[in-house]
Amino acid sequence: MQDFAYFKSLYPAACKQMQLCVEAVCDELEYEGSPIYDEYPDPLQFRLLCRRIFDKASEDEEKPGAWMADLIQVMACQEILRRRTEYRSR
Hints:
By secondary structure, the protein is mostly helical. The chain has 4 helices and no strands.
């Protein structure tokens, strides 16, 4: 996990801010039985999660673009995968 933290520190400033939004929304889903721990997370629920992140991240953006939604989806996948790996190792 140190590798993950190190590489996260190399993110550009805008991505670091977006990562904080990703983590904040995922923190809300950090509980036993959460859908992020389903063996096969529901695609619709994942899109809704990404939409919540997008809404949170775009509060400070003047004109959020499609690139932002795509990046959020990738970052959310990465964050959920990290949390699932930690969860399974407990």
